[in-house]
Amino acid sequence: MTTDEFRKHAHELVEWMASYMENAGRYPVKSQVKPGEIFSRLPSSPPMEPESFEKLMKDMEEIIMPGITHWQSPDFYAYFPANTSPPSVLGEMITATLGAQCMNWETSPAAAELEEKIMIWLRDLIGLPGSFEGVIQDSASTATLAALITAREKATAFTVNEEGINPGRTLRVYCSSQAHSSVEKGVRISGIGRRNLVKIPVRDDLSMDPDRLAAAIGEDKKNGYLPCCVIATVGTTGTTAVDPIRPIGEICRKNHVWLHVDAAMAGTALILPEFQWMIDGRENIDSFLFNPHKWMFTNFDCTAFFTRDADSLIRTFEILPEYLKTRTRGQVNDYRDWGIPLGRRFRALKLWSVIRSYGVNGLRDKIRAHISFAAKLKEMILKENDFELLAPVIINVVCFRYAPQGVEEEKLNLLNEKINHALNDSGKIFLTHTVINGRYTLRMVTGQTNLTLDHVERAWELIVKTARATGIGS
Ligand SMILES: *Cc1c(COP(=O)(O)O)cnc(C)c1O
Predict the structure, then answer these.
(1) Which of 175, 422, 436, 466 has the most Cβ atoms closer than 10 angstroms to its Cβ?
(2) Distance between CA 275 and CA 279 in Å, rounded?
(3) What atom of ligand 1 comes closest to residue 300's alpha carbon?
(4) Domains, the chain
(5) Cα angle vertex 31, ends 28, 34, to 5°?
């Protein structure tokens, strides 16, 4: 492809992109294809001769688009969002065009220094203390793994990196029973072992019980284990429960245990002064993450990871082969030493573009609106006596079920599962479920970039109608 051809296709593609953004809500939200359908429509071998971009776009429309689940549809209420926005896409286009591999300062000083600056902006915006330094990681899972490995090294005086896991000193990690599965993955990969992940019971509001945490750590110490890391969640994936950071942090300090906070989705709400309570006790946090790629209108991937002990993080991950030695080492941030991969994309650009385009006030307005939609949805649910709320509405997640009188528990689970499938198969909205205390729970997240109250009201109407029709049919 010549640059002239590129210019032509790129202009056309921008039209396609803008019209997708305008029409994302017109597709079935959840892709309706069957397993293998897309695969079987693709040729079994690559073309030997050059093919035109027009042909590719034709296949894009005919083969690929039917297999897309539309995360950018305002009717997407599933999982946690993976939002994008026009300024984010523009930033991503520049990143792809420059194609810079930003592993250390010298491989693109602007990438390192913009990242350093944007992480300071974000740190201050979410209210972490000035002692924290930040770095962009690809995902929350990677950032949690980096925190676990750093905590492991700190607890063992940096000997595991040298000698491997010492089976004589069993490390222990703690999280609540509601923590994300990436915690379990992290303890497996870091060599700590799934059996040494202690799941602390939760209180009625599904947040970690700090008394049970203190007891578990005390018991472990008595039995000769080495407590190494507590992972607290601010905004659990199931219900956005918020673990109490202050008492958890005090327990961690007393026991010399690293406190990592996973605020993957809910961390964005910290840009609102009225949500700062979620990190009350912040002075005892050792590391913290949130995903601008979830709720801050920045396309995947972009995890903001902060630590007040960057020295330990770097000591854990730095490695210096001859070919990576530079003259500026020690004067600048070489971010390859701040995590697992060597190669790094220039991800600060899209964040810069998003923050400048919305402005802090624009971001705050949008986040506040999303939170108010969840509150409105809660009111709508409480008005219907055949529906019930199943968890407190704290931020932007609403957990509920259809529960007409006189139907037994077991049948309610089946009924709500049916309702969920009927809604998703309709293509009109997409929501996912969780299980709370054995109850099949419908779960709606009001966090998609383009969501309006109108969408929420229409979704609720559809849910009521579908639930009652399903109830009669079963
Ligand atoms: C989504 C989520 C994760 C995983 O995020 P990735 O960036 O996809 O790895 C981790 N923790 C919580 C609480 C989450 O909600």
Answers:
(1) 175
(2) 8
(3) 7
(4) 1-30+69-84+360-474 (3.90.1150.170), 100-345 (3.40.640.10)
(5) 135
Measured from the CB, is residue 180 less than 6 Å from ligand 1? yes
141 lines ligand 1 (CB under 6 A): yes
Q: Whose alpha carbon is nearest atom 14 of ligand 1?
A: 264
Ligand 1 lined by 449 (C-beta under 6 Å): no
Gap between the Cα atoms of 226 and 107, Å rounded: 40
Find the 141 Cα to ligand 1 centroid distance in Å: 6
Q: What six digits make up the tokens of 129?
A: 């203390």
Residues 396-411: tens digit of each pLDDT = 999 999 999 999 988 9
300 backbone dihedrals φ, ψ, rounded to 5°: -55, 135
Tell me if residue 278 falls in helix, strand or coil.
Answer: helix
Please state the atom number of ligand 1 nearest to the C-alpha of residue 143. Answer: 9
473, pLDDT greater than 70: no
Distance between Cα 236 and ligand 1 center (Å): 9
Residue 207 contacts residue 241 (beta carbons within 8 Å): yes
Q: Is 239 in the pocket of ligand 1 (CB under 6 A)?
A: no
Task: Return the structure tokens found at 294.
Answer: 């979830």
Model confidence over 6-20: pLDDT tens digits? 999 999 999 999 999
Of 291, 294, 299, 445, best ligand 1 pocket probe by most atoms within 8 Å of the beta carbon: 291
Decide: 146 in ligand 1 pocket, CB within 6 A: no
Average pLDDT, whole number, for the chain? 96
pTM of the predicted model as reported, rounded to 2 decimal places: 0.96
Nearest C-alpha neighbor of 282 from the set 134, 118, 130, 120: 130
Interval 450-463: pLDDT, tens: 999 999 999 999 99
Q: Which long-range contacts (CB under 8 A, 24 or more apart) does 212-219 make?
A: 213/174, 213/248, 213/251, 214/251, 216/174, 217/172, 217/174, 217/251, 217/255, 217/257
